[in-house]
Amino acid sequence: MRIAFHTLGCKLNQAESELLALRFADEGYQIVSGDGADIYVLNTCTVTHIADRKSRHLVRLWRKRNPQALIIVTGCYAQRAPQELAQVGAGLVVGNGRKMHLLDLLKGEIAPVTHCSPEQLMADGISRVRSFIKIQDGCNDSCAYCIVPKVRGREHCLPMADVVKEVKVRVAAGCKEVVLTGTKIGDYKHNGANLRQLVEQVLLVTSVERLHVSSLQPRDISPELLDMWRDHRLCRHFHLALQSGSDAVLGRMRRHYSVEDYKQAVSLIRKSVPDVAITTDIMVGFPGESVEEFEESYRFCEEIDFANIHVFSYSSRPGTLASGMPDQVNDRLKKERSLQVLDLAQRSLHKFCQRFLGQRITVLWENEVTPGSGIYSGLSHNYIRIFTQSSEPLTNQFRLVRPVRLHKQGLWGEFTDED
Predict the structure, then answer these.
(1) Considering the entire predicted model, what is its pTM?
(2) Which pLDDT does position 128 carry in this prediction?
(3) Are strands 210-213 and 398-407 parallel, antiparallel or unpaired?
């Protein structure tokens, strides 16, 4: 029986989809990438109306191309509005609470026909290069714009032993990089252990070659946590959520930090971690965002000098505080502001990348950009996208290159005799 997984949204969704795929493979399902599957599983996002629209489009597309297939939709959109997904053709809609029990729901209804080991799965169905592992889920905050607490529930964390075991499984299957992810991983706590102790344990008892700690909040940053980055296996990349560089907007958003708090966190990271890349999220068009507040936020982004910025326009989500706020910003202004910050993001990325021209950089290489082209891309330790040409396979290898020029959203690297 062939099953295809498609994931929208955050790294947490990616981690859950990977684990589901491993479980299905262990029961004998064949993991495939697209057309011709007997079962499709769509793990959805509902952070914006655009994410909702993508989910509905995929369900309709699969139903049209493969009318006999079972289409299962799960994730945050499925949790928020299951009836909308059923109406467009989903055969089974499963909320977040039962997402990880999909296999149990299907047992007895559809019989698998072949066996596939986790090692085969990593080779055929999931990237062997980089694996996402969930360590925490849910959120106890109540940011005015965010629907995540409603669709993910209260915070809960996985036991440290379970996380370590899962890292070992992925490493044994050949995975070179593990990403620890969750809704708010900085709040990780289980039986007295915090995030720092979890990371320390993973580094101590597993042979993972590269470990990436995903998105953090300014309040998570401390000298004790940053001390862990003396281990070269930790990626020198921090995604530190900002949302706005205006204190007034942050207050209306109900974020629990000021721009000064954010600035201090960035300063501490840069003092502690050489060559670090700091990236962020910026929302434009939050209700009531004035011209002055937007310009203040823009200037703050210039001042911080991010390695990259993920820009998105405010999207009203049903049931959130912000959806009922006055002074909603019109779509035209949102688009104008988004384009301005996107331009800044592009210039910031190029500026950061240029710092590494001519240096020797270790890259974890992924797949060919286009099959048969011999052009590979991968990520450096600080998550710069690097491209190169090679007549030999590079996938899932750490290799040194020297970046010689800007290329697309990163750098073009060349091998040298000494490398």
Answers:
(1) 0.88
(2) 72
(3) unpaired
